[in-house]
Structure prediction request, 65 residues.
Amino acid sequence: MTQLRQLRIPENLCQALERRFHSQFSSVDELAEFVLRELLQDETKALDESEQQMIRDRLKDLGYL
Prediction:
């Protein structure tokens, strides 16, 4: 089982999130986990894009592009 940690957010923000996303997520915890995972994926995508650019640059230097 994965260990869990607590995340503290202001009550008014929590209530606003519950009102706004109640149909998509069963809890604010679930919403927060989703958003944080998405942020990590975006970082991974950015690294992939930079790696792709390096490959394109190398292929261009070699005369393939």
Observations:
- The radius of gyration is 20 Å.
- The mean pLDDT is 86.
- Residues 27-65 form one domain.
